[in-house]
Amino acid sequence: QQQWAERYNVQGIPTMLFVANGKIVHRQVGALPEKMLREVVSQFMDVVKTSNN
């Protein structure tokens, strides 16, 4: 949605944001090979889960 894009300053697709406690902890802009994408998601999902508990 445009509202989210404006709020988080998303200007390109794909853009993936990891948000913890209302703050962006990582921004990934652009496509990644599957292996790298899985590594990024795994790393920052742990950060987000920890901070949101």
What does this structure look like?
By secondary structure, this protein is of the alpha+beta class. It has one domain (2-51). 45% of the residues lie in helices and 25% in strands. It contains two helices and two strands. It has a two-stranded antiparallel ribbon. The longest helix has 18 residues, at 34-51. It is flat.
Secondary structure topology:
Layout: H1 2-7, E1 15-20, E2 23-29, H2 34-51
Antiparallel strand pairs: 1-2
Quick synopsis:
With 53 residues, the chain is of the alpha+beta class.
Strand content: 15-25%
Structural class computed from helices and strand pairing: alpha+beta
Number of domains: 1
Strand order of the largest sheet: 1-2
Helical residue percent? 40-55%
State the separation between the terminal residues, measured CA to CA: 27 Å
- Rg calc: 12 Å
Q: What's the number of extended β-strand segments? A: 2
Backbone shape: flat
Alpha plus pi helix count: 2
Provide mean pLDDT, rounded.
88
Largest sheet: 2 strands, antiparallel
